[in-house]
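We treat protein structure as text, and this decision shapes the records that our systems exchange. Below, we set out a record of this kind in full and without editing:

***
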Amino acid sequence: MKISLTGLQLRSLPAVLRGAVWDDLAQPSIPFPGGRRGSRVLSAVVWLLAAAVYFAGTLDLAQHYDLGYGPAMALTVGRAVPLVLALSRPRTAWWTELAVTVGTAVLTRPHSAAEPWPWAVTSVLTLAATLTVVGLRASRRAIVAMWLEVLAAGTVLAALVPAHGGWYALLPLSVILAVAAVTVNAVRSRGDVQARLAVAEERGAAEQARASLLEERARIARELHDVVAHHMSVITVQADSAPYRVPDIGPAAAEEFTAIAAEARRSLAEMRRLLHVLRDEQSPDGEHTPQPGLSDLPALVETTRRAGIDARLRLADDVLPADGLPTAITLSAYRLTQEALSNVVRHAPGARADVVVRQGGGALHVSIVNSPPRELRRAVEPRAGGHGLVGMRERVAMLDGEFTAEVLPDGGFRVAAVLPLPLPLPEASLSATPSSSGTP
């Protein structure tokens, strides 16, 4: 049977009651607030409280109620053990605690009207503590159900034996358990909010890292287009003009040159369509901005110096002017230096950074080394897994180069790249003329 209320399908009352008093108290999936540390602290507190209940409960029942030390000790153990059991088996602990507490009320009578009944002082303590520990991992309806169960049991006992208590004796325990239930709910809500906040922060950090990586890849793609498009345009012009520049060219060769020019134009069109997707909408003039190179490194270092970093640049004499170096090489060297100096600003405030760019062994060598940060509370190691380094590594790999990023023994950091330079053309091909290339 189902009850419809304002369009919502509610389960039958027996199913709701079973869920509140039984199913929700089974092994819950809700962890204790505070993680492992919170669980260890709670376990220590529960064990200390159980020991206190054992000694105080035995004395309370033996001295204030008509019960010997042997039975008093047995009933006290029965009330203290469920408190510890609540850490691992909440449903068994709660029902055992409630049953032993009701049994204690049935088997005991106070020596005077000043003693509380049906709930002894130590019974109030163990019930409130057990409800708190169980409630930390149970649902809200289970917490309300536990409070109502204790109130119903006390009402029945007070109705059956009115001479030993009175209805007013139910008020203290009802208020204490209500306060415990509200406290548990507040702690649970705070834990839920902290858990959701931690998840949101992790997702935000992951999205930010992913956005940074995609931005770096898009920038590499745009720069790759700028470099390749130039050479493709040269190929197109040379293929179109070859039949007019090269004498005695046959019809088949002319047709081949025409096909090469057409394919080059088609490739350029496809690259422009792809570039249109990758361009930043906030900077539509970016495609007309000259690409930076080695000559822009002094300005970059000066900007970094204004940010509080003692940045120094050593540029080899054989590197400038860099007109003979490929655009992809000089652009990558600039971007590597830019990203490395940005990392120094973020992760090593107040440090010194040395930028060295030199040419040797058929490659361009770029090295950025920074000293440990002056603010020791900020570590250098997190850069080892940063997405900026991933972008730099991908950029170098695109040029078939070598990339190194490592933490130095003194706490500093080193980024180095070796960018291979293309081999120069042989002298014979440089001095060859169009007429000589066309002769058999």
In short: The radius of gyration is 40 Å. The CA atoms of residues 205 and 211 lie 10 Å apart. The first helix runs from residue 13 to 21.
